[in-house]
Amino acid sequence: MQYDPIKRSLGKVFNQTPALRKLFYKLLDWLLLRAWHVKKELRQLNLEAETHILDAGSGFGQYTYRMGQMFPKSKILAVDVKEEQIDDCNRFFSQIELSERVKFEVADLTKFVNPNQFNLIISIDVMEHIEEDVLVFKNFHQSLKEGGALLISTPSDQGGSDVHDHDHEEGVHGFIDEHVRDGYNIQEIEEKLKSAGFSRVDTRYSYGSPGKISWRLSMKYPIQLLGVSKLFFLIIPFYYLLVFPFAAILNYMDVKGNHQTGTGLIVKAYK
User: What is the pTM for the complete model shown?
Assistant: First the structure.
């Protein structure tokens, strides 16, 4: 399944007013398990009041918006390779209270370096799309200030994004086709980050047993329905009314759990 067309369709629905866009961000915060994990990690970081942040691969701007609220004195640069998403985010952020502290720019992470500029870099579900990952890790390291932190969310090699499910094995495309790798092995990503210069790397699994069930209920099945027909937009709200309470409990269990394996990785690396 091609994921981007579904995301663009949802974006058009919620881009009509700033209030709808904020509602869209709130829904993503509730529904996306990775957002639960990212918020947990951001809360645990001891960031300076005037933190400089890079959102590397900002997409819809969901995490940029969240960090702008969590760190009210921060300055955030958000970059993405897709010009249409940067233009879209600049239009939205110019209409809200965060516009003076947030800037969006088109950038290729394999070429982007801003030496010793940022206290924090986040890269959420980005590295699985980039072949030259070590080069990007080196650019991140150069762009961080001394003592700065890098936060990554990415699929693991334990079946991230259902790349190992039975459909894929039978020759049908997996849930997401845009990935250049199936997922990272913990040792692999830690070694790559250390080779890029990071002094310490902490990695843990996300999307353990509770998370895998939640992801199917809250994301995979609804998006598959929308991929069949846009008419399912009319049914989706009622679906979520039934499913969300169960998904929220599963998300909470996943965030609180210590998983021996999982289809996602949360990685923190320090300069």
Answer: 0.89
